[in-house]
Design goal:
Blueprint: E1 3-5, E2 18-23, H1 37-40, E3 60-63, H2 80-86, H3 110-121, E4 152-157, E5 160-165, E6 171-175, E7 192-198, E8 201-207
Parallel strand pairs: 1-3, 6-7
Antiparallel strand pairs: 2-8, 3-4, 4-5, 5-6, 7-8
Length: about 210
């Protein structure tokens, strides 16, 4: 299995339905003029490798390069205190890891923003169990936090894109069809995902999230 840098971009929306867009590029590929493929990925002439069923081939092992994302630092980056606690290299003035919306802010629902703030503000003075980041308790990250930690493997089969993570041995299965989502009362740690290819872009809609991530 080849290894590739994480030159995709995930657009996150922490709402009842999370839509995630993967802009697929290969940093190893070059244009004839030597321009990195990331700069020409949307050009009409760009033709990525294909799987036997015609999907753009994004299979491989992916890692975050030079961007440490802690759960409380997705938007503004971790503070010096958080980086010390997490044992990370200092990354002061790091840009937001959120690229869509353009303002770099996660569009939390009000109740979710309250919960995020409680986790962030009480991490050294825990008063209640729900102030402990679920990631620290080795719970699954959920669809919108899936790429916040660890390295990943993408696997493609006819009708599916499968994401495997080193963190908690978690995975997401994205079905590439229009079958209905599971029933509304069913809430899942990773949600229920359906995807479609728009050219070389994989657009994923995920529903049925639980409220524990």
């Amino acid at each position: 299995m080849r290894s590739r840098p994480a030159s995709f971009v995930a657009a996150l929306s922490v709402v009842t339905t999370a839509s995630v867009v993967f802009l697929v590029t290969s940093a190893a590929a070059q244009s004839p003029a030597g321009t990195p493929a990331a700069a020409t990925a949307d050009a009409p002439s760009w033709n990525p490798p294909r799987t036997p069923d015609g999907q753009p081939d994004i299979q491989g092992n992916w890692s975050q390069q030079g961007l440490s994302i802690l759960s409380f630092g997705l938007e503004d980056g971790p503070s010096a205190e958080h980086q010390t606690i997490g044992g990370q290299t200092r990354q002061l003035n790091r840009p937001s890891a959120v690229v869509d919306p353009p303002d770099g802010r996660v569009p939390y629902q009000p109740w979710a923003a309250v919960q995020r703030n409680a986790v962030r503000d009480n991490h050294t003075n825990l008063q209640r169990r729900n102030q402990v980041d679920p990631q620290d308790r080795c719970f699954l990250n959920g669809a919108t936090r899936f790429f916040s930690v660890g390295t990943f493997q993408f696997v493609q089969t006819p009708g599916h894109v499968i994401l495997l993570s080193t963190f908690a041995h978690s995975y997401r299965i994205i079905r590439l069809d229009d079958t209905p989502h599971v029933g509304e009362p069913i809430k899942l740690w990773q949600g229920d995902s359906r995807g479609r290819w728009e050219g070389n872009t994989l657009v994923v809609t995920t529903t049925n999230h639980n409220d524990k991530t």
